[in-house]
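Handout, page 2. Input:
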Amino acid sequence: GAVGNGLKEKDITLSIALICGSILEAHGVEVGYTRTTDVFMDLTPRADKANKFKADVFVSIHVNSAASPTATGLEIFTTPGQTKGDELATSIGEQLIKDFPDFTFRADYSDGDVDKEAKFTVITKTNMAATLVEYMFIVNPKDAQILKTHQQSFALSTAKGILNYLGIKYKETADTIKLEMLGQVRYISGVHKN
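Output:
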């Protein structure tokens, strides 16, 4: 993955994925991972693993990079055309926009929704609703700082978007999850297991 400002994409994305997965599991969602440790897996095997798992949704979690250190913001991708992936991407994208109004969201509304379209291997070779999320630009010093401090809040926002797509209401309980949200430490009630 990408590197920049002393950070490695592989570390950030694994953290976000594991936290997001635990929130989903707490809502009764069965979660399958392409990895849960620091191992590398090629792109096609990732899609194959999701297909074998017979998942309903596939969310590929990434950190963006660019030649310019001024590139900034969040992005979400689906395959070309209107698919179930567009509905999933819209649900997650709109949640990210709501939760992070001060961050740039690099949307493409040309087809009526927030996602950009690309033929990324992991979303073209999966059989289910699939999307790829890019959380900020690791080469941008300001974005890199956000990536250091907002992993839990990105995970929560993404999980809420997935739950909304699945028709599952996000529930808060007395179990607390410490989140760093928009630069302020807040304590948000945890999740309720159905």
